[in-house]
Amino acid sequence: MNASAENAIRHGEGAPVAHKVTLVEAVNLALAREMANDDSVVVLGEDIATNGGVFRATVGLKERFGYKRVMDTPLAENLIAGTAVGMATQGLKPVAEFQFMGFIYAGCEQIISHAARMRNRTRGRLHCPLVYRAPFAGGIHAPEHHSESTEALFAHVPGLRVVIPSSPQRAYGLLLAAIRNPDPVIFLEPKRIYRAVTQTVMDNGEALPLDTCFTLREGDDITLISWGASIMETLQAADRLAEQGVSAEVIDVATISPLDRETLLCSVAKTGRAVIVHEACRNGGVGAEVAASIAEGAFLDLQAPVVRVTGYDTVMPYYRNEQHYLPQVDDIVAAVEQVIAL
Amino acid sequence: MKDRYELTVDYVRYLNDAGEPLDELPALSADADRLLDAYRNMVLARTLDQKIIALQRTGKCGTYPSVLGHEVIGTAIGQCMERHDVFVPYYRDQATQLLRGVPMVNMLLYWGGDERGSAGWELCPQDLPISVPIATQCCHAVGIASAMRIRDEKRAVVVTLGDGATSKGDFLESVNLAGAWHLPVVFVVANNQWAISTPRGLQTGSETIAQKAVSGGLPGHIVDGNDYFAVSEAVEHALERAHGGKGATVIEAVTYRLGDHTTADDATRYRSADELRSAWDKDGIKRLQSYLHRAGHWDADKEKELQAHCRDKVDKAVHVYLEKAPEPPVAMVDYLFETLPAALAGQRERLARKVEGVRS
In what residue span(s) does the Dehydrogenase E1 component domain sit (chain B) (predicted)? Predict the structure, then answer.
């Protein structure tokens, strides 16, 4: 963590300060900012207090906000998920960390059967203003169970929001929005780009909108739709395509559920072509929902079939082979060339 | 380091099956009004229960889990809790919920397939709705207790569960956290001997359920769940501890599920008529009634009057329930999120149009 960001986290608010930060540092900035703004925000998870989290996303928070609001929990993911539900029903805004998405499954009963349903099943008497954070996806040579992209599981659950940042600025603004949102949010952090780039982030407490795609680059010939770490390869593919004279619009979906179909359909209406890029396996992936939405809503605008560039429908390989699983720039460019040729 | 651990779990009962004191009764026995209120609540819970089962049998209510055999435990809990405490129930807690101000109409709505059953609850609006997925409510209870601890409040949580639920991680993980964080929680396990068709003996090799408390560093007590004095004393004591910052307690209240698991179950498939008959001999309502008679607080006329009063109250609630129109179908969309996401606006509109089409 760089000195200015660390200083901000340790010493708190004051005037908005510009920080050059990585994505994981932006997560930390957003947590510190909202904990300072709102006493009801608490943070819990395994190794998050004294150790500051295995990726250091929560470093400095315990020192600044105290052990009552920054809690190391016993090693039990189901308990973490359910404890957060209990806290949230009483008006706290817990931000619970799962150390890796591969370990979130033990908490699924709590997330699906309780967090996602509390408002609905009490007709608004109680609700769950909570955030479940988890580092996810591959590419860092991690052990087994540490690299999967299973965001579609949660996108399928009514009552949940699933939000995935793809840059430090969006991590900061979207996490603030997620914490302030009065309903449960699954906030998935692409750990491959936790420290890949730094960006200037204004620590001014300004949230970005949820339920909205971000158009990262405008273009006329094709719409490239992605989220998470794959945004990096998608942007690089767009650069390569520009050299070939193909103008690609790049959209970061960011909130994969509920899906901002309008932005996607408007873009496809303009370009007439779409390629969807995601790390998760293809079968039943969020790409399928995006493709179906385009087929339903923009069929007559399409000049070519919608194509997906995704992981394989396999178990995520151990890291020696993970590069062969992850969509590469070449794969995206090849898919676009195929679609443009039609 | 100790080289040997000894486990003691006490078992408490004050009345024999006939309602005669076995020992000196706890101080609360001097409060005749409290005893009479308790008895009335038990009878009301049972009257409501019989009515809901009848409604289900005639197609006017959905599948329903009977409270039969749990009325004493539920009533004792409801009486011991302060209003500002939080109750985290499962689905056989009608007796407690009546005392927590949940209207009977709401209970009827819930089992009658209407989400509004868990809405409102003005007396104790922080109480959780019934938890259907077994034992999951234990994690909510420790979360709520953590919130109280974070805010330095002198409140406590009572969570209930059945014997089967103590096999799940949710219970054990929550007991573990309650011990580690010294949380103001009371776990009341209504050990009714049966988890649908699985008997207590197959549920766990643990000699008692109360001793599972020890794994989390909590005290565990066993009480006769049909003994109003024993349950009341245990819950009162556990709540005193919780309110006083002394941590959590597990209470195993031993009773018997006198009814089927739910109206969809047929318990004659897996347990004997003899077993059921001898369980009825231990019925806690009858036991308290005998005690009240003997103590001069009760007689046949009062009983007759109470039965009529309960039937009347229940009938009135049933009438309101049956007259209540279902919610507009778009309610299924409207309560998912605080504000309707754009992605759902179209679906809401389609649903509303479809409903209109059906009506016109």
Answer: 39-319
Q: Which of A82, A123, A124 sits opposite B139 (nearest CB)?
A: A82
pLDDT tens profile A87-133? 999 999 999 999 999 999 999 999 999 999 999 999 999 999 999 99
Q: What is the fold, at CATH topology level, of the domain defined by A214-341?
A: Rossmann fold (3.40.50)
Residue B295 included in any domain = yes
The CATH number corresponding to A3-203 among 3.40.50.970, 3.40.630.30, 3.30.70.2470, 3.40.30.10 equals 3.40.50.970
Q: Which of chain A's residues have a Cβ under 8 Å away from the Cβ of B120?
A: 125
CB–CB contacts below 8 A, A to B: 140
User: Dihedral of CA B202/B203/B209/B213: which sign?
Assistant: positive
Q: Do residues A278 and A227 lie in contact, with contact meaning Cβ atoms separated by under 8 Å?
A: yes
Question: Which residues of chain B make contact with A260, given a CB cutoff of 8 A?
Answer: 342-343
Dump the DSSP string for A16-61. -EEEEE-HHHHHHHHHHHHHHH-TTEEEEETT-SSS--TTSTTTTH
What's B117's domain CATH number?
3.40.50.970
Mean pLDDT of B331-338: 97
- Of all residues in chain A, the one with the smallest CA distance to B159 is A86
Contact A109 B133 (CB under 8 A): yes
For strand B194-195 and strand B198-199, is the pairing parallel, antiparallel, or unpaired?
antiparallel
**B139 and B257 co-located in one domain:** yes
- Model ipTM value: 0.96
Chain A residues near residue B132 by CB distance under 8 angstroms? 113
**Contact at 8 Å (CB) between B192 and B256?**
yes
Closest chain B residue to the Cα of A258, Cα to Cα: B343
Is the pLDDT score of A8 beyond 60? no
Give ranges for CATH 3.40.50.970 in chain A: 3-203
B188-240 per-position pLDDT tens digit? 999 999 999 999 999 999 999 999 999 999 999 999 999 999 999 999 999 99
Q: Does A258 touch chain B (CB under 8 A)?
A: yes
Give yes or no for residue A3 having a pLDDT over 80: no
Query: Touching check for B215 and chain A: CB below 8 Å?
Result: no
Chain B within 8 Å of A77 (Cβ-Cβ)?
no
Nearest CA in chain A to B168: A78
Spatial contact of A187 and A178, defined as CB atoms under 8 Å apart? yes
CB contact under 8 A, A123 and B343: no
pLDDT of A252-301, one tens digit each?
Answer: 999 999 999 999 999 999 999 999 999 999 999 999 999 999 999 999 99
| Residue numbers of the domain that contains B37 | 10-327
